[in-house]
Amino acid sequence: MNWIELRALNNLYTNGEIKLNNTLAKSGEINYLINSLRILDRSHNKLFTLNGFTDIYEKEYLERYTSYEDFLLENGLLKPQLRFEENDIKILMNIQTWKNEGILEELRKQIIASDESLRGVSLMFFKNEKYLDNKSSLIDALKQILEIEHFANEKDQQYIYKLECHNPKAIVLCENLDFLTKPDKPRQHGIELWYAGGKNIGKLDYADTRSLPIYYSCDWDFDGLFIIYPLVKDKIPEIRLLTPNGAPRGIEETGHNSKWTIKDRNIDYLLTHTQRDIIKRLAQNNQWIIEESNNLLKMLNITPNTP
Asked: I need a surface site. Which of 60, 118, 176, 297 has the fewest CB within 10 A?
């Protein structure tokens, strides 16, 4: 859903009816509430609430809408023309939380120091390097929250983001940014975290591991394993793939774009027997394992210190 749909549902909750527009007429969510749940009625270019709408809205939508509206108001982003997708708002809220908690400051300084490109930043936070293209309002919101004046126009920066630690014992190269926003426990165990930017691994040509053991953490999907990991392995031959411990998720139910198309592709020589079995099950069940759902310390066979 986008903000127009979310706002429309809240207006229906408040007023009982709203005028229909093109966005709402095409909305999958609105049509689901009309045709499947039958708690909305569409007639005479208007939408009307029916019995059951209030209960479902309060259960499924109200808390989400209120939190989004509060966030947008607090940051001066709530404008009449706003069309942010719901997931965009969630990501901006996460970034705001990381910044408020001081988690993001080290990465923010590195983004500024490296003069990171717009597509690099897009890949960091939205997992798609082209996602922010032609989305000026979302770019402005991101700049405002990160307190960064501009992003470079180059498509690929030669900069590895690193969260270093005292007395490092190992390095973990992460496909996604998430583990770098939670560095405390890895640092306690001498784990240095790197982020190069998904498929943008050309910069690894210049990586210096200082003879430390290095591991690769990624989404266990087709792209992460069959495309990115072999490229990383070619750049850093000594790197080892971490075996996941997160729960598999359905590719279709999560709207994931990386489909299992492993026919005529063989990376068995890069994998352990256990890893090959996991991939086989994931492909058979049309599932994947999200990188951030894993417990990093357990993947590294490190037992966290108990308080």
From this structure: 60
